[in-house]
Amino acid sequence: MKKLPSIKAFCVALVVICSIQVFSAMIKNITILSMDSTLLSTANTLLESIMVKAKRASFKEINYDDESLKQEIEIVSLKASSPVIVYDGMTMEELAVKLEKSLNSSLKGYGMSFAKYSIEYGVDPYLALAITLHETGCTWTCSNLARSCNNVGGMKGSGCGSYAAFNSLDEGIEAMIANLAKNYINMGLTTPETIGKKYAASTAWPTKINYYMDKIRNA
């Protein structure tokens, strides 16, 4: 008769088998975790956090008592707080307010447009506005060309009979000043006398523009 294994031997064998299975499962789980992108991402985040803290620590070590650094900070601060003079001792805002004093009718409220585009295109703002006032009559009531076509400089073109039409007064103001810069100022025609020979047929045109310029300047 075949001898059966003892209970003790059976228990030992069972423990060994279970231990092998548990160990295999642990190895498998470790492998899966090592391939888990979430775990890797967490590790990267932790690394980044450590690097940021290190940078902050090194930044704190900068010597802010250095005199040259103090001076640079003071200069930057001064430049940031100092008003920018754009024309005749005025800032852009002050220039817009001054020009606004000479605007009436449909052009009321467009002082900043004249100031901004004049400085941008390198045109004397008093000159640009003086030509506008003469061409549109906006000292009192703006001409139909200005009111209906937003043409503030008597510019030739299409869309409004033989004159140019613009979508808005702001667009018309910019176009007039841009044209003045390109076809006159940049060609050395910078005064009412030199501009008038090309801009208008009337010989009295320069005198009228100078009158408006003085009026705007003294407003």
Keywords:
mainly alpha; two-stranded antiparallel sheet; Lysozyme; 219 residues; 10 helices
Note down, in words, how this protein is organized.
This protein has a domain of 126 residues: Lysozyme. A hairpin with a 2-residue loop joins strand 1 and strand 2. The longest helix is centred in the N-terminal third of the chain and has 28 residues. The chain has a two-stranded antiparallel ribbon with strand order 1-2. About 10% of the residues have low confidence. The chain is 64% helix and 2% strand. With 219 residues, the protein is mainly α. Helix 4 packs across helix 5 and helix 6 crosses helix 10. The chain has 10 helices and 2 strands, in the order αααααααββααα. It is elongated, with a radius of gyration of 40 Å.
The major pleated sheet works out as: 2 strands, antiparallel
Number of helices: 10
**CATH topology annotation of the domain at 92-217:** Lysozyme
Q: How much strand content do the residues show?
A: under 5%
Name the average pLDDT: 79
3D shape: elongated
Radius of gyration: 40 Å
Q: State the strand order across the main sheet.
A: 1-2
Unreliable spans are 27-47
How would you summarize the topology of this molecule?
Layout: H1 7-34, H2 37-60, H3 67-81, H4 92-100, H5 111-121, H6 125-136, H7 144-149, E1 159-160, E2 163-164, H8 169-183, H9 192-199, H10 205-217
Helix pairs in contact: 4-5, 5-8, 6-10, 9-10
